[in-house]
Amino acid sequence: MFTINVNGVDHRVEAPGDAPLLFVLRNDLGLHGPQFGCGEEACGACKVLVDGAAVPSCRLPLQRVGAARVVTLEGLAEEGEPHPVQRAFSDEQAMQCGMCANGMIIEAVALVMRGNPTDDGIREALQDNLCRCGAHHRIVRAVRRAADELWR
Q: Which residue windows are transmembrane per the record (predicted)?
């Protein structure tokens, strides 16, 4: 039995310690923002925030989460309002198929919470998140828009 804090709520889960956090989030907690993509920490689809850092959850063992605060795509909204990054992705129509949306948004949130990045910094931060649709220009515009809003 493990207790993990996800989206500001403590959850008791009964799962093996080596169970990937992604499976616990999706199967035990019913959170479907994080996606199963490659299962090898290479595509970014499964990313979550762990104490503010964007981390792949597909191979992160539950036992390593400990007392860390985990935030999923579902937990980014505050008082029913989308996070500025989520709103910017919608406004800029930055997603097509949506497979990469979770990882891109989670990585962008971690990035803009550290400061107002340059466009090159945005591209560098997002380079490990795979997008098959070719929406990269709109994604960079969305992150720029959110960063400008948060850091004015």
A: none
